[in-house]
Amino acid sequence: MARKQKKNLRKRNSNISPSNYETFMKFMRKGKFMMPYCQICKKNIWPPTDYCTNCFNKLDLIDLKQQDGKLIEIFHSFVGKKKIKSNQSKTREVDIIGLVDFTGVKLLGSINKATYNYFNNFNCQNLKTNGLFGYSRVRVKLQKCGILENSLFYKFKLVRI
Amino acid sequence: MRKVSIFAGETSVFRKIGYISNTVNKRNKNNTDSTVNSTNERNKTHKIIDTIQNFDSNNSDILNINIDINRNIIQLALEPTISLLKKTGFPRDLIDAVIFSSCSTEQYLSSIISEILGIKPKISHRIDNLCNSGTNAIISAYSYIASGLCDSALVIGAELCDSPGRVLTRDISRGQFNLPIYWAAIMKKMYKNKYRIDEEKICSIPVNNYLKAKYNHLAINSGKNLSLSQVMNSKLLIDPLHLLECSMICDGASSILLTANDKISFYTSKLDKDELSRNKTKSSKFSTASNLLSDNKEKYSKQEFIPICIKGIGQQTFSASLGNSIESIFKSSPAKNAARQAYEMARIKPSHIDLAEIHDAFSILEIIAYEDLGFVGAGKGGRFIDKKDQDVYINPRGGILGCGHPLGATGIAQTVEIFKQLCGTIDDDSYWNDQLKFVTNGLDHENNSLNTKTNNIKVHGRQIKSDIQRGLVHNLAAAGTSASIIILEK
Predict the structure, then answer these.
(1) List of chain A residues whose C-beta atoms are within 8 Å of the C-beta of residue B52
(2) Axis crossing angle, helix B109-117 with helix B73-88, rounded to the nearest 10
(3) Quick check: B129 and B477 in contact, CB under 8 A?
(4) Which residue of chain A has the CA closest to B56?
(5) With b meaning 16 or more CB within 10 Å and e meaning fewer, what string describes B353-374?
(6) Mean pLDDT for chain B?
(7) d(CA A56, CA B56)
(8) What is the pLDDT of residues A44-58, one digit of tens each?
(9) Which secondary-structure segment (H or E) carries B415?
(10) Chain B interface includes A106 (CB < 8 A)
């Protein structure tokens, strides 16, 4: 009898589909960013949930690698991990961080150095448009993402200026 | 709706551990048992302290850390609460609600503390809303009293420096850059780009706050000097944010007692006279709204009570994720909305505010707050730095930059400061009379403060001398995505 009950419970549990948040994290572990998207509102929804914040429609997860985002802000961070130089002296890694807008969803991630150097050759202020902030002409793509030491990471690369 | 007054408030001495950074410790997890502190744990903590101090060797004196590893959150919370109950002599059986504000992981704290204090409240619960937990707890207590559900409420806030509230782990839009310094750097850079404010202006914010905190014996930066060059030359954490522009997470606690306005005469008649007289032998003055300073035991009940009323409340939350509200920070921020609600409720204008406690966890937040609170127009926050004390006294206790930031206690400590300033009892602590620790020789204190000469030594009080009627508390949470404003009136 107990075995039958256990079997039923297992069967019931297997019918419960994982939430979008769990699925999102599962894909992140594999290095894939699945953006929650509402087919009715035609909008990206953040943070990953099961329902659209506007219409409560069930959300789909779509691959973000197909989309490119707008670079809002870029800056240097000097609080990264320590690395040992060739002469044994320790210095901190300099991270280049970018705030990127993927049609409504803003992510904070690192920007690769090659992209930054290329970007730095231009006069940044000339690229600023729309009055408030955002380098709207600078488009970036998600190059890499995943989970490292229990925290998520995003890495962006330049697509075009 | 019933009027609600603040009866009394107390704040403990804030103790620091380090700056808001990923180097902050993982201290003894079993905080309830203070005896369990292995040598290993101590070594680990001291190692972390060394890391913080070595992080910016030029400012090692400011980063000087003084930590009591044995402290736990209950012990911390009891410190100001017992002091409050002892000093006022408020009967414990008349406390209807106990609300505890903290981001710690300890369970059932409000009931545990009620039990220890010998209070049997009708309502007892805990509030956790990151950095504005304190003001949220006060607003909840206000609601209970105003609605008639209870007549008095004791609000206690306490936080240890290793609180999990330091980082909002659920906000996955920040990726690995989930520490508060990252969003503060974004805000500073965006503000600088938009309004072309000088770096010197922004860096003068911590200098002003340290100057005020210098004379506040409760502040972690008490008695310390900070120059503009020190701030500007401190370690650049994230361009353009410097180390000394960041507040420090610290251990701290504060408690406040709210009562219904129509019950004040009843409570003053019920005060424990024996408790009061016992305490009077220890300290000569008390910090309560009733100014119960008379040495005559019979006289005190006849003294006039000056109620400090909560006149206006505003609260607004836009989102939990930084990404969903970063665009609106300069347009229509939660703080702007909350301030508008509070002014409407109090039926006043921003120009009627005499003093304000601002949530300046980072220097740029203070400038943005001037604009959000309507003291100046958009983009003019930088100009207000020079002339603010002519119009409104900002951060008389030294702000979060000067005092430290124990998350759950900050909002309550801010409210206690405004309350005591309005009462005129800010310098009346027994500490002030017993120990002249903050002795300076003719240093200029910009705060228009009381200067008294004792034994040819100049002592700086913190009481604002001019006639002040209204004060404002500005408290933010999670990168300004949630804001609470409280207006107090004499």
Answers:
(1) none
(2) 40
(3) yes
(4) A79
(5) bbbbbbbbbbbbbbbbbbbbbe
(6) 78
(7) 50
(8) 898 898 999 899 999
(9) helix B407-423
(10) yes
